[in-house]
What we know:
Elements: H1 2-9, H2 11-24, H3 28-38, H4 44-76, H5 81-94, H6 96-101, H7 109-117, H8 123-156, H9 160-200, H10 202-207
Helix pairs in contact: 1-2, 2-4, 3-4, 3-8, 3-9, 4-7, 4-8, 4-9, 5-7
Amino acid sequence: MExxxxxxxxxDLFYGVVAVWTFLEGETIVIFSGIAAREGVVNLxxxxxxxxxxxxxxxxxxxxxxxxxxxxxxxxxxxxxxxxDRALGLLEKYSTAFILSFRFIYGVRNFSxxxxxxxxxxxxxxxxxxxxxxxxxxxxFAGAGYAAGAALQQVVGEMATAVTVGLLGVFILxxxxxxxxxxxxxxxxxxxxxxxxxxxxxxAFSSSERxx
Length: 212
């Protein structure tokens, strides 16, 4: 199978793609890679580790972006306000439980780390809990993919590898396109805010402790 051969040959690059993808986006690549791990093409431990690191660093970046440029970004993109308010409400109500679980909550997950950066939550506490949460998240979705691969093996038997190759090939193509679009969109949003925060200097930092 050519795709599996490519992954075997360029394994380090594939794990790098997983790390970058989880830094930018969500769990889809982790699930499909978990299926490939069931076929022995991807090392499950390395997969979880790369997804863990990528997810952790991605949310740390958005937390710091919220801390140092959150108010400016909300002024520029007021449509984010409802999502930020909801995330902050959940943080206030559930505290630690919310930090550990926000990756699993659709509807607020995209705003959560950014919103928490705008709260009075210390970055050290967020970093520790975010590290634990990222590990739980990576293990859950890689494990889900691995279990799906086992189920696929039971259903289609010897055709499981061929089906997995087909799914992985389609996903890699779709992921490349979606990743490029997402990267351009996020870059267009983040770069002006970061530049404004740097230009503002200490004022941006002083405003970071105030919630919207």
